[in-house]
Each structure stands twice: as structure tokens, then as C-alpha cells.
Amino acid sequence: MGEVLAAPTDGPLRPGDRVIHLAGWRDHALLPVTEVSPLDPALPTAVAHLAQGSAAYGALTRLAPVRTGDVVLVTGAAGAVGTLAGQIARLLGAARVLGSTGSPHKAVRLVRELGYDEVLLRGPEQPPFADRLRAAAPDGIDVVLDTVGGEQLAAALAVARQGARVAVVGALAGQMAAERGGGSAPVEIDTFRLVVRGLSLRGYAGTDHPGVEAEWRERFGGWLRSGAIRFPYSTVEGIDGAVRALPELIAGRHFGAVVVRL
């Protein structure tokens, strides 16, 4: 998000306008007017335009639609997507929302501040994730929004109910694996279970759903104004901070999104 410093006098933008662009973190950018978008008045604050909830909203309404009374699991619940995903699932009618995180402190915040019913800790010192997930959801899970992959995705499929819907929006297990360099996230899954349980497993790409972004902003703005949803984020100061902001986000150093403020 940036501020227009100069623009053609016969164009739609004027100096001082706030806009969204995809030119990355930088102090200045020279861009065609077609590559910037004015801030949407549907959102009550400027920083809300940087929320990463559209993927969660799209996945939970298109690929793995939440139905009233569903049990929903969000992996990586304390991240930029996960902190919004649990709240979105509840607003869409979920009866029980489960999450996962590697931090006890974040687990407490997710329950206390964002309405998760239970958050499971992951890590080598913890019991097998599948066992704890079965205990937390003894009757199974209806919807999974997965941002992690790996052991957690395999466990979610093992606990899924008949006809459960699984949407994959991230692969943090691969991104955090030093030996993989972030380029892959393989996991062994039981395809026989996919068949006999009638499960759907799909990856979410926003470009496949062009109408989601505008729909999300409209609903997000209304939820923010009514107090039905929170947008947690941490702020990193200065362009120099951008160098560490992304790796810190992936490594789970922050709660929610990370905003670099120039």
C-alpha cells in the first residue's frame, strides 16, 4: 500500500491518494496507472487492505464450504491466514473450531481473543498429532483449512468425516524445512481413505476465483465495523526491516500478519 506522489493530470489518480500495488516493499515505485488500485471504501481502515483473509474466505466458501454445525480445523492457526480463518469459519456457521500452533502463548491467545474452541500444540516433544486430533474431535472433522501440510494434513485426513472437505492454502511444513528451500512439501496420505470416505482435497489459488477478492472486502469491512472479527498483526518498522519480516513470519515469530511500515 502506498501514497501517490505524482500522476498524470488527465488520469484518475491525484497526489495524496492511497493505493494498493504489487510492486513489493520499496520506498518508491514508478507504475502504470493500470497497476494500482485505490483503497476500497468498503474497508474501515487502510491497514485492513493488507489482511490476508481472502484466501481463507475463498477456500471456506468455494472449495471447502462451511455449513451450519460443522467442525472445522485450521492448521497454522496463529499465522496471517489462520488468525482470520478461524473467525471466518465461525461467522459462516461452524459449531466448533480447532486450530494448531507451535506456541503455548499463541494457543492461549487464539482461544481467548479469536474464539477458537481448542488449539493443539505441535512439535517433536508433543504426542502424535493424529492422536490429539482424534481426542479433540472424537466424531470427526467436516472441514479442514490447511496452511501447513506435512504431518498435520495427514492427521486431518485420518480424522475426517464422511464427505469432509479439505482446502490447502499453504505449505509451511515445506517452507520451514531447511533441506527443501521452500520449494516443495511432500506428505504421505492414505488415498484409500479419500475414496471410502468420499473426501475432497483441493488446493486454493485466488486467480481461479476472480470474484472472491471484492466479495471478501465487502464482508470483511462489515464484520470489522460490527466488531464481529479482529485483524491481528505485528508491525516491523522501516524498509530495512523487510529483510527479516518474511522469514520471521514463516518461522512463526509473530501472531497474525506482519506489516512493514515505511
Automatic annotation (TrEMBL):
InterPro entries: ADH-like_C, ER, GroES-like_sf, NAD(P)-bd_dom_sf, Zn-ADH-like_protein. Signal peptide: none annotated. SUPFAM superfamilies: GroES-like, NAD(P)-binding Rossmann-fold domains. Residues 2-260 form the Enoyl reductase (ER) domain. PANTHER family: QUINONE OXIDOREDUCTASE-LIKE PROTEIN 2, SHORT-CHAIN DEHYDROGENASE/REDUCTASE. This is NADP-dependent oxidoreductase. It comes from Streptomyces polychromogenes.
